[in-house]
């Protein structure tokens, strides 16, 4: 069956899609369009004609302009492209892990993570990954996070943040909290006694993350329930930090606060 309509015009051709966003910036002459794409008139003219016939662009005073319909199409097409780009960019990461504990409203905003990169470490280099994590924390002035796994180096690390009066809010799953409370009692008490810290406990969550005013890091579980310590999604831009902050607030609202042991 032959495809037709606005959707096929914009999605079945990279050049048509690029041309739409090019003209969204400002009108262009045919010569400017050819130079942008590095093509001849016979190569680009059919694409231009198709878009004119679809009322996405029009020609006026020897320049091509985006139409009102074209502007609306671009407005709604860009978020879809951003969303699909996030999925395709790290396809294995999303496919290999369970997403069940990422709330739907944040799954719908995965495009906010468009500039995130995947940090992968083999077992022999996991120390380097931990060092990068602590280095990023050291550059932060506010720290929030959720831990669903126990890492022995974290109790003294977060105790040090508390002693240094770094505003820190942590959410621990129930098993992690019990282990820290029983095996690192003094350190968690020091953390709780600090003025700039807060601690919350959650029944369970199949993810772990840290969000600060400097970076966001997300770790997920495999579909079989095992935690993946080797792959982290790492972002530094405002959209990733805001996404991470909203994820923290979502779980904070589902947790109970711990004031004392």
TrEMBL record:
One of its GO terms (molecular function) is DNA-binding transcription factor activity. This is Transcriptional regulator, ArsR family. It holds the Pfam family FilR1_middle. It comes from Methanohalobium evestigatum (strain ATCC BAA-1072 / DSM 3721 / NBRC 107634 / OCM 161 / Z-7303). InterPro entries: FilR1_middle_dom (IPR013561), HTH_ArsR_DNA-bd_dom (IPR001845), Tscrpt_reg_HTH_AF0396-typ3 (IPR016490), WH-like_DNA-bd_sf (IPR036388), WH_DNA-bd_sf (IPR036390). Coiled coil: none annotated. It comes from the Archaea. Residues 14-57 form the HTH arsR-type domain. Gene3D superfamilies: Winged helix-like DNA-binding domain superfamily/Winged helix DNA-binding domain (1.10.10.10). Residues 126-253 form the Methanogenesis regulatory protein FilR1 middle domain.
